[in-house]
Every structure is written in structure tokens, then in C-alpha cells.
Amino acid sequence: MRFEDSSLSKQYTHTKETLDFGVFYFFDSFIISEMNYGIHLCWKKIQQIIKLIQNHYGLDCKIGYISNKVNSYSYDPNLWGKFYKEYDFLIASVSVYYSDINYINATLEKQFSKKSIKRSDSIEEAVSWVLNLEELKESN
Fold first, then answer.
1. Is 30 or 140 the better-scoring residue by pLDDT?
2. With contact defined as beta carbons under 8 Å apart, do 120 and 96 qualify?
3. Using CB atoms within 10 A as the burial measure, which of 12, 59, 117, 136 is most buried?
4. What is the reported pTM?
């Protein structure tokens, strides 16, 4: 379910940003991403997302990240290693999956990430999990 189609979109204050390849929703301590169908999420696109995040939260932010996989798209999971070498602002992530292939991809992401990645089958569960992270409560 797209975030804007959920009841959460009316419950929580957020800012929406759109790039050529996806939509991003910024909250006090976390972000929700929804990539466009068929895109390849390369390092250049990841850097555009990072710039959006740093412009919104500042350079020293600590946030949660929800990848709401409402569309199929590709990415190189090895980029997690490069990301964590250069950046340290993600406390934890959630992959919301709506198909078996997205569940398998989320499982693969867990293998490459140095931080916690939870798998969820609903946007509501993902938001609840992020909001209850002690690390985010401590950093805000």
C-alpha cells in the first residue's frame, strides 16, 4: 500500500519530496521511500537521496529508513557496504514487502547491511516499529 493511500498519511505530519525515480516522505525521525517501477537504484541516485536527507535533517542526523516496496525495482545490495563506509546516519531500516520476491530481496539486504533491517508486510507495522526504536527516542 502506498503511504498516501494509508490512514497514516493523515495521522503524522510529514513533508513530501519527489525525485525522477521515487517519492520520499520526511517525518521527525524517519523517512519513507517509494521507488518508481522499473528503476535501477544506482550510487548516483543514492547520493541524490542522501542530499535530500541531509538538507532536511542536517549533516549530523540519526534517522530510521522505511523502504516501502510498492513497485519492483533493482539495486546492487553491495552498495550497502559503500554507504556505511561513507555515512553513519541510519539507525535502522525496514523493508516493507508485498510479494515473495520483495521478501527475498529484503532478506538479501539483511545480509549486506551492518545495521538492523526489519522485514514487514505492512506500512503500519513498519512505522510502528521505527517509532518505538529506543535509539531514535534517545537521539531526538
1. 30
2. yes
3. 117
4. 0.91
pLDDT of residue 103: 77
What does the alpha-carbon distance between residue 27 and residue 85 come to, in Å, rounded to a whole number?
25
Q: Specify whether the CB–CB gap between 121 and 98 falls below 8 A.
A: yes
* Segment 65-81, tens digit of pLDDT: 999 999 989 888 788 88
SS (H, E, C) the chain: CCHHHCCHHHHCCCEEEEECCEEEEECCCEEEEEECCCCEECHHHHHHHHHHHHHHHCCCCCEEEEEECCCCCEECCCHHHHHHHHCCCEEEEEEECCCHHHHHHHHHHHHHCCCEEEEECCHHHHHHHHHCCHHHHHHC
Burial of residue 123 (CB within 10 Å: 0-12, 13-18, 19+) is buried
**Helical pair 79-86 and 100-112, crossing angle rounded to 10 deg:** 50
